[in-house]
């Protein structure tokens, strides 16, 4: 509905784009299901398709794998990787450090609203420079 009301797109064009985006995120086969008939991972991927319908230059995610089991998290990660390959800039806020490491080109660790450390995820997770980062990662990854 947002492309119709906000972008003044006609209904048929919006429906066509919605179907294309649902296919893109692996939901083409369930395009006519209501949200309460989708799994958690499917709901997250539908939300990504809904956001993409507005043609954003940056995608913002807040805990995209929260409450998802590992298999469903992988589905969401797969969609995000495909968007990355297309050149989509994505910003993810998460406490799931395994997901952050797998999904990121660059990681920023923030504490009390301040950037404590940033860098390549493989370097930062294997050998963080800052004691605060080491303490945080040790708590979450042990």
Please explain how this structure is put together.
There is one protein chain. Helix 3 runs parallel beside helix 4 (70-85). The protein has helices at 2-5, 11-24, 40-52, 70-85, 97-103, 121-126, 131-141; strands at residues 58-62, 89-93, 107-111, 114-119. The strands form two sheets. It has a two-stranded parallel sheet with strand order 1-2. Strands 3-4 form a two-stranded antiparallel sheet. It is α+β, with helices and mostly antiparallel strands and 142 residues long. The model has no long low-confidence stretch (mean pLDDT 92).
Looking at this protein, list some descriptive labels:
142 residues, alpha+beta, two-stranded parallel sheet, two-stranded antiparallel sheet, 4 strands, 15% strand
Distance between the termini: 44 Å
What radius of gyration results from the CA coordinates?
17 Å
Looking at the structure, what is the overall shape?
elongated
Q: Report on the biggest sheet.
A: 2 strands, parallel
Q: Give the strand content.
A: 5-15%
Keywords: ATP-binding, Cell membrane, Membrane, Nucleotide-binding, Transport
Membrane topology: Peripheral membrane protein
GO molecular function, one term: ATP binding
Main location: membrane
């Amino acid at each position: 509905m947002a492309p119709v009301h906000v972008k003044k797109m006609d209904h048929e064009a919006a429906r066509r784009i919605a179907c294309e985006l649902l296919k893109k995120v692996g939901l083409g086969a369930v395009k006519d299901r209501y949200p309460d008939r989708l799994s958690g991972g499917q709901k997250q991927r539908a939300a990504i398709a809904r956001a993409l319908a507005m043609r954003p230059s940056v995608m913002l995610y807040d805990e995209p794998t929260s409450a998802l089991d590992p298999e469903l998290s992988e589905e969401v990660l797969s969609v995000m990787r495909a968007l990355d390959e297309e050149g989509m800039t994505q910003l993810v806020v998460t406490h799931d450090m395994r997901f952050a490491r797998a999904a990121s080109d660059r990681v920023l660790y923030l504490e009390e609203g301040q950037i404590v450390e940033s860098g390549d995820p493989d370097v930062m997770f294997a050998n963080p420079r800052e004691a605060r980062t080491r303490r945080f990662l040790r708590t979450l990854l042990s």
